[in-house]
Amino acid sequence: MFQKLFDLFVLSSVKDGETSYDLTTLGYGSVILLILLLLIVISIISGSGKKLSTKQLIFASTGMALATVTSFIKFGHLPFGGSITFFSMFFICYIGYLYGPKIGLLTGMAYGLLQFLIDPYLYHPMQILLDYPLAFGCLGLAGLFYKSKFGLLKGYLLGVFGRYVCHVISGYVFFSSYAPKGMNPMLYTLSYNATYIVPEAIATVVLISLPPVLTGLLYVKKLATANYNM
């Protein structure tokens, strides 16, 4: 029963002894619907009035758009998914920093589903959940520090760490068999995911720590959260 349901959304094919997966038309439509539903939820959960909810939706959508555009600027792409991008993780973390963890998590999940549409890597339903909506949703954990001193930096590091943990779990459970012979599978998945997440995180931390950049980001936060009771 589960396999029949799975086949409605995912198309499998075998080439050279290896099975590859892709979304069916129904699968693509379902993911798009989920993204739209998450954006609708973002617009109504604050309960602070139509005008402010519209502002939140605009900022969340803009953050997703910027993250998507910068995700296409890649500095290397690993064989089982993952790449160093042009600060794409930051824009999702920043939405969490602006509006708190609820909107941050929802924005991250919507962005994760969007990434799944753009560059899907399918192996197992739980792998999809871990590597896309959960991993990118964790970037929204940055919102836990939205009122904290140095909250942007601490929130970014927490969000990135959350994403890293999700990918490590997925890698260990589903891709540990690809570890080089004699290498510990956990060490393999830890190092594999660190290869692309850590360099981008370091570059981003350096950038957002620059006084002019930080001042500009804090000013945008004031504009985005005017009259917003978090």
The biggest sheet amounts to:
2 strands, antiparallel
Report Rg. Answer: 18 Å
Reported CATH architecture:
Orthogonal Bundle
**Number of domains as seen in the coordinates:** 1
Low-confidence runs (pLDDT<50, min 5 residues)?
none
User: Termini separation (Å)?
Assistant: 44 Å
Q: Which strand order does the major sheet show?
A: 1-2
User: What coarse outline follows from CA principal-axis ratios?
Assistant: globular
**Which CATH C-level class is it?**
Mainly Alpha
Strand count: 4
Average residue-wise pLDDT: 85
Could you state the order of secondary-structure elements as H and E?
A: HEEHHEEHHHHHH
Q: What level of helicity do the residues show?
A: 55-70%
| Helix run count | 9
Structural class: mainly alpha
Task: Outline the secondary-structure elements.
Elements: H1 2-9, E1 10-15, E2 18-23, H2 25-44, H3 50-71, E3 74-77, E4 83-85, H4 88-99, H5 101-118, H6 125-137, H7 151-174, H8 185-208, H9 211-224
Antiparallel strand pairs: 1-2, 3-4
Helix pairs in contact: 2-3, 2-5, 3-4, 3-5, 4-5, 4-7, 5-6, 6-7, 7-8
